[in-house]
Structure formats: structure tokens, C-alpha cells
Amino acid sequence: MPTAPQNTDELYQALEENDRRPYGRTRTVTAEELVDAAEQFAEPVPLVHALFELQEAYTYGSEPRKSPVVFARLLTMFDEQPDVFDERRRHTLFWRFKWVANALRVLPEIPLGALHQWLTEMRDRYEKAGLGLQPYYGQAYQLAAHVGEDTTLAYELWAGRSRTRLSDCEACEICERALHHLAAGDDERALDAWEPVLAGKESCQEEPARSVSYALLPLLRDGRADRARELHLAGYRNCRRNPSMAGEVGRHLEFCALTGNETRGLELLAENRNLFGEVDSPLDLFDFLTGVEVLLQRVELLGHGELPAAGYTGRTWTVAGLRTEVRGRADDLAARFDARNGTTAHTDRRRARLDRAPLVDALELTLRTRGLDEVAPAAPVAATPARTAAAVPDSLPELILQARALDEQGHPDAKARWAKLHTLVASRDYTHPDDPAVGPLARLRADLLSDEASRTGEKDEYAEAAVLHEEAAGLYDDAGVPGDAAVARACALLATAQIPAEGGDGGEATAADGGAASAAGATDGGEVEAADGAGAKAAALTAAHASMVRLHEETPGPAPYQEARLLRLRATALGLRLQMSGSEEHVAPVLAEAELLHAFATRHDLDGQISGAVLLRATTHALSGDLPAAVTGIDGLLDRLKTHGPAWHLPRTLALRGRLQLALQDARAARADLTEGLRLAADWPADVVDAARLHSDLAEACMHLGSPDEALRHLTRSAELELRRGSRTDAYCSYSNAAQLCLDLGRVEDCIALLDSLLAEPDVAAGEVDDRLVAQLRLTRARALHAGQDLKVAVAELVALAAESAGWEDDPGSHAMIAAEAAVLLGESGEFDRAREAVDQALAAHARSPRYEQLSNCLRELARLRAEQQGPDGLADALALLADAGRIADEARAAEYEARGRSLDTALAYEHGRVNAYAGEYEAALAALEKALALLGEPGAEEDQAGEWAECVRLAGAVEGIYLERPAAALPRLAAAVSRLNALGHTGETEPLTSLAARLRDEE
Asked: Which residues contact 988 (CB under 8 A, 6 or more apart)?
């Protein structure tokens, strides 16, 4: 608190501000300071309010030891100065007897006798005050349930009594009744009791989050897995990181452990690491730690005890180590409660939770269905191909010769041989075979360097790849194999030429695969770049091609496979140049090189290079705009691959044809090709075919075919595959698209859970991911929170984003959009002064980078909100906002900007109508609506326009007929509109008009 309140008005204002803060240390410390400030005033009433606020902060901030102390002071003031407590304060005081009973119950150091003594005090006070005893019996039942004795009688004494004004809220009492049935083993009765809370009909500060956490496992046992999943996503969001709901968090962790979602459980545990140190309630901590142990026990049982886990601060933990620590602490808490209560209830309950077996093998809780293997610190294990690969030979000479032979064919199995040879040669006791067929050690080292260089290039690390290729070329020279040396130098030339451009796809296959991606409208590295560096890169590729041609001509007697590789590299350089430039003059040289390669490979029966030549030719046709020719070429290649091979080219070729079919707007054919490509890709190692791209393209095809849920599955699968291979930016982009699709589909909780998971990733949290990409994730999350009715958190996120985006000097338009969205949400919250500040920021950014429609929408919506919430008092400010919107419309008209829907002038006139109607200025409202109708014009065949027109007529009819009390004028308007809409076939738009007309006739 910056400065202490100087008078009681400032104190009350500070108390109101603190009441808006979330529960936690900041709110609690401020409440303590406000009590100190209140004691300086001579008036007792402000002190009572400050003490009430402090007790609430302790209660919901999980500091139960301090709550009874504050209440004791309040009770003393009530006994000494009862007149200070008016009816509302008196009600609050007696309500909080229950808070103290709860606080004492969760502290094992408080003797059981003291708990009973407090309940006696509560009963006596209630009787003396003439209050009903149902709340007392409710607390007596809760103590009996806690101890584990005489619960049936205590329940009947409470549940059979009528509720009073001081009874717990309906939601809390429902939860207690349901928990009683649950403890009796009656899941069905418990769930029936819970239904009003789970359905959102009853709620309070703690509900439905508390009930949801208990209901998850009964729902699973009852076969309602989908409902359990839905409630887990929404319920967890309402209790995460909250020390006063640590027990609820523990039960969500347990739910993850028992549904095959151990990875999500560890993720949620990391998100709630603060609870290890911030939970002061021993009972809440007991519940939390037991849930944590259920999760850790399950992970360790699955063989992942060495995985890292988030635990107590001050050291790093493994799953096994944290489980040992948690077990000791939870056992101690159970023993302390049981010793105090004289029963074994807490030890028994804890053992029952730990002994539960998984309830389902795997329940897909979120869109990120990762296994524990995928979060292990070791490199992820590639999926086992369905095809049975040939065994890797044990004989070293045979291994070397086989690796070279497979490499000459471009066979995927070569990689496993090179990987084994990398390990063997790196060993200190490696002895090179003395075998003329194998050749000298220098040649093998060159082979391994070439393999490493290729893998480096595949990661777009072109500079390092070029160095490795050059080093390999030198060793090939030393070994006396000039053909391989020439190929290595050609690869170095190609890698060097790609260094100036960021993000291009490396390797020989880029021009073949990426070119069609560009033609098909794909979004990764194959797109033709319009950046300033494109010309320089095209020039570099031209020079590289010329150098390759000279190198080829100067290389003495290369073997056919070596010469074919040189021809392939020459063609690839020109193919990449075409991608960079998009120039028509660059098409013919690529086709000429592809023809040379095809003719040479055909003469020497090199199936892999024949396939590569056809792919290059097809993508060149695609880049030049001749998509039918590209498809024809691919069709012929597929026929050849099915008969002659190589089989590993089939998935890639089908993927390319699928992308071409997308470009030709044949989504059904595209889905068939892409699906088959994905099926065949499973036969080969993961790095042979870009399965992530296949899933991404399938998502696009599914969207075109009206299958958004299937598209969502492919998008998330694509993103996970990108993550596995280290392409994190691409993965986050795919996830961002998936999150937006979720939101569009109304799957709000799925969207929020996905984004929460992404934003918790270590590289995102550490600020290592592009800030604009992270901002997009956060923006989508804020929109989802708003859609999920979590306005407070959505506002906080958007306001923070608006503040951060204010520094984006290179992108003021995005700041304008974000600030405008923040302003609207602030308006929904009733914070119009802050909303005006956000609007002014948006307008300033708009002046630098216009966002006509977004700003107009924002200003109009804020005006509507102000008039709706404040009526006549808000009219002047609302009209000022509409005046700003009018200036935006004037600017748009001058710039010849066309809105995507109705014109900005039409929308503005309609909003003038609504705003004036909310403020009671009905004549002005009707005039504005008449103007809007004139701007809209008569409806036509378009359904959207007809809907807007009908709504405008309806509102005008309501203003004229109801508020201006002129039904005789309104009814003909409505009748003419209904007739017009029926004639145009827009019968669905007439129902609101006919209903309004019927109402007006009834009131005449």
C-alpha cells in the first residue's frame, strides 16, 4: 500500500480496492496494513470492516491459524459495543462462526476438545440471539465426518433441519450431502445430489470447483468419461495455483494419474509448484500431497522415476525423490490428525487413494496427448516402422560396405548404419579394417562427415553444413575418391548459397517438395519469398549452379551414382532459384536440368534419381502455374514407383499430389492421397517423410470438406511431431491454429487447456520463443477466457498484452487491435475510464497503421455498453465514442476502404439507434434507425444482409410501437418487412418481426 489512508473515506476506498484483488499474500498484507490504519481513527465501524476484510483474506488465502485470532477480536468488540454492529455486520459476524470452526478443524495441533468447545460456544451464541441451529448442526456433522465417527447420526441431525439465513449456501450444502453419500459408497446418489452444482445452477466462492474435484472419479466409475473430462478442464482452471484450493488441485492430479494422463499430471504439478510453500492449512496440504503422491507413484510404477518433477523450492527433484519426500510429509500429517482425533480415518483415506488402480487405460483429456516417453530428458524414440528393416550387420567391413551401398541408392536404412559407425569410430579402441574393399580410414571419416553435414543441412544450419561438406571433400581427396569429393563440394556450394535466406528447407529434396507447397498455398519454407534478400539469394544460387557445372565438367570419371547426384544438385540449385524469384525466365532452365537428370538416370537405371527428376519437373510446372501438368507428371511417377520403386518415395509423392489437389480445390482427392501417404509413411523412419506436414495438409483438406474436428486432430498431431523433431516455432504456429479452431468450434475449455499447456513450456516461460508468436497465443487465450465467462482474467490478460504491444514500433496496427479489444472488455467490466484510456491508445496506433473496421467496432460496442449500463447518465460519453467512430468512418471512406460486412456508416447509424434507445431518447433512436435502413437499402438474396435489415426493422418497430407508443405506425412497417422477406425466401428472418407485431396488436 503506497500511502496509508488519511481519513475513513480513503480507508473505505482502499478496502474496496483490496476486495477486488485476488486472494493471496498481496491482498493479505494490504488487509493487515488497513487494520493498522483503521486503528488510528476513533470510529469503531471502520475497524470492524477492516477486521472483516482481514479475516476473509486469511480464510481464503489459506492461513487458517490467523483467522480465529481476528474473529476473537471482532467477538470482543461485539460483546463490548453491540450497537456498532448493525443488521448486516451482525449477520456477517454470526456467519463467520462457521469460518472459525473450519479453521480450527484443519489444524491438528488444536485439541479435539477445543473443537467441541467452540461448537458449544457457537450453539449457545445462536440460541441467545434467537437464531436457528441448522448451521450449528452442519458444523457438528462436518466435524464428525472429519473425525470419522458417528457420522450417520450427525448427518441426520443436520440434513433433516430446515435451512436458515445463516446456513451454508445451497452449493456448499449440496457438496456436503454428496460427500456423505460418496463416503457410504453410493456413487449414483452422490452424483444425483451434485447435479445442480455440476450443471452450474448453484455456485459460490468455492463451488463448483470443490464439488467438481470430488465428482471426477465417481463420474468415471459411472461410465461418464466425457462429462468427467469436461468438468476436469473447467474445474481445474478455477482452482489452479490457489493455496486455499490445494486439496482440489490434488484431486485433479489424482484424476490425471488414474486416466492415463500422467504427463498432463506432471505438467499441472509444475504449474502448481507454489502450493508446496504457500499452503498454511495442514488439512489442505494433506489432501494436496496425497494427490501428488498418487501421481508420482503412478509415474514411478510406469518406469519413469528419474523424470524431473516440480517440487519444493531450493533443489531439483526427480519423480522418485519427490515421491519419497511427499510420502514422509503426508504420512506425518495423517498421523497428526489421527492422533488428535483418536481415529485412523486420515491414514485409511490416504491409503484408499494410494491403492486405487487406474479407472481407464487412457482418457484423452486435452489436445496434447503426450506419453511419458515424450517428456523424458533423453532424445525421443522414433516410432517403430511397420516395415521390417534389414538387420544391421555385426561385421565391421560388411557394415561399412552396406552403409555405402544403401547410401548410393538414397535408401533410408543407410542412416542406421551411419549412426552405428559414428559410435564405433568415435570409440578410443576403434581399429580400422585392413580391407581394400573398405578403403582407408580417411574415406570412412569423409563418409561420416558427409552424413553429419546432410543432417545439419536438414536443420537449416547451412553455414555449419557447408563447412562439414568441405572438410569431407578434403578427406575424399586424401582417400583418392574424386567423384565423392566433387559431390561433397557441390553440396557445400548449395549450402553456402542458402545461408543469406533464413528458414529455407535444406537438402536436395527442397526444390522438389517445397515448390509444390508454394503453388498449393502452403505456409512453410517452400513459399516464394518477397523479402529483400530474395534477389541476393537467387543470385547466389545462380553462381552456385555455375560452379557446380564447372565442377562436374572437371571431375574425372565419376561413377553413375556420383554423376547423377551432381546433376540432381545442379537442378536443385535452379529449382530453389525459381522458388526465390518466381520469375518465368527461370522455369525453362530448371526443366532442362531435370530432363538431363531424367535421361541420365534412365540410361543407368537409377530409380531414385528418376523419381527425383520427375518430382522436380512436376514442382516446376506447379511453380509456373501449370497445375494440371504437375498432376499428370506425378500420376505417371506414382505408377512407376508402384512397379519399380523406390518404395520410400511413395509417401512423399502422394503428399505432393495431395498438395497439388488442394491447390486445384479438390479436397476429397487431396484427403485420399494424403491419408494414403500417411499410411505408407509409417513403414519408414520418421525422418524419411515429413509426417508433420502431411498432418497439416490433411487438416486443410478436412476443413475444406467440412470436418473441423478431424482437422483439429491433424493439426495437433502435426504440432506434436514438429516438437519432437525440435521445430518448436513451427509447432507453436500449428498449435496456435489449433487453438483458434477450437475456439471457433466452441470448444472453449479445450482451447484454454491447450494454450495453458503451451504457455507453461520452459522455452516460452523463459522468453526464448518469438514474442509475437507468444502474444498471439495469449491473445487467443484471452478471447477463450472471455468466451468461457471468465471476464476478470480475460481483462487482465488483454490489458497486459496491450501494455506490451505498445512497444511494438514496427507493428502499431497489432497494438491498435489489442488495445481495442482490451477496451471492450474493460467496458463489459464497467471500467469505462480505463476503457477510454485503452481506446485512446488504440486510436493513436491506428493513426500510424489504420485498422478502420476494428476501431469502429470497438468504439461502437463501447458506446452501446456505456448506454446500456448507465442509461441517460452515460449518453454523453456514449455519443462521444460514436463521434470518434464517425471520424473513423470518414477516414475509411476517404481511403476507399471497404468493410467486410455492412458499411461502417450503416453500422454507425444502427448503433446511434441502439444507444439513444438505451438512454431513453426514442425520437433520436428512431431517426438513426431510419437512416440505417436507408443506408442498408432493400434486402436481396444474401441471407446476411437480410438478417441485418430485419433486425434493424425490428428495433425500429419496437422503438416506435412500444416506447413511442405509436403501434399504428409500427405495424405497417413490420407487415411490409415480413411480406418482403417472405417473397425473397428469407422466412427464418420473419419470426422476430411477427412476434413483435403480435405483441403490439395485443397492447392496442
From this structure: none
